[in-house]
């Protein structure tokens, strides 16, 4: 198996060249990190080069690396991770790209390369606020239209900013400030060593 992974890594290095920031083989998987400015071009090469032939995009998601590794992370905050499948060569690949600007996370859309990326990119935009340049219909897909913020960001409050409820007098849904009260945290109880065992 490691020979196949080494072959894939060698093919990636040969085809993508300077577009690659790093290639890693770990736990039976290959991960390639590509530069944001060559992300779209790299996707085309990954699909069209016969030595790679990644015909299918299986998954794409956003990632917020704020406080990653307990604050030891020194890289960009927002990343996009894609999983590709080559049916012809029977191998998989993880592609990672980081948005260069944390305050305006923007990477190229790969929907023209793999149209299955459409829903996934909309989800990453909705939940993380990552923008995809060239996406035809980049709008919220899981939260409602009036939602403010991006709920999967690490700095988004756990209880949210507003809550909604149905008001029977107004006969419509209304938004109001969150009414969740802070709970008292109960300390963890450590039981005796022989608790529940034979006496």
TrEMBL record:
Its cellular-component GO annotations read: plasma membrane
Might you give the EC number(s) for this enzyme?
7.1.1.-
Q: Which Pfam families match?
A: Complex1_30kDa
Complexes and interactors: NDH-1 is composed of 14 different subunits. Subunits NuoB, C, D, E, F, and G constitute the peripheral sector of the complex.
How does the entry describe its membrane topology? Peripheral membrane protein
Protein name (database record): NADH-quinone oxidoreductase subunit C
- Top-rank taxon of the source lineage equals Bacteria
From the record, give the transmembrane residue ranges. none
The Swiss-Prot or TrEMBL record annotates one GO molecular function as: NADH dehydrogenase (ubiquinone) activity
State the family named in the UniProt similarity comment for this chain.
Answer: Belongs to the complex I 30 kDa subunit family.
Question: HAMAP family, from UniProt?
Answer: NDH1_NuoC
Q: Which range is the signal sequence, renumbered to this chain?
A: none
Give the species: Polynucleobacter yangtzensis
